[in-house]
User: Which sequence fits this backbone?
């Protein structure tokens, strides 16, 4: 059951990110771009979670870095992009 939740969360974040970026490309405000990038990074976070917990449960690290560090880095990257858009790119 947890596997389905991981996949659904990744698909939902990917869909939200794609729709936000598409709305930006259609001439929307730039904040749509920052929100879309944030959701795409969160989708990557969910994919890494799925790989960590379901695909490679016995593997602790990839390229010498632990999976929780990869997950935290992608989530932090997405939230920093969103924070940048909220603070410095306000119209």
Assistant:
């Amino acid at each position: 059951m947890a596997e389905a939740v991981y996949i659904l969360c990744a698909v939902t974040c990917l869909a939200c990110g794609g729709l936000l970026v598409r709305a930006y490309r259609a001439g929307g405000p730039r904040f749509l771009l920052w929100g879309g990038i944030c959701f795409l990074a969160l989708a990557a976070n969910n994919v890494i979670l799925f790989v960590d917990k379901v695909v490679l449960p016995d593997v602790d690290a990839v390229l010498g870095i632990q999976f929780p560090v990869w997950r935290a880095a992608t989530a932090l990257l997405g939230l920093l992009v969103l924070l940048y858009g909220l603070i410095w790119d306000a119209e």
Observations:
- The two ends are 43 Å apart (CA to CA).
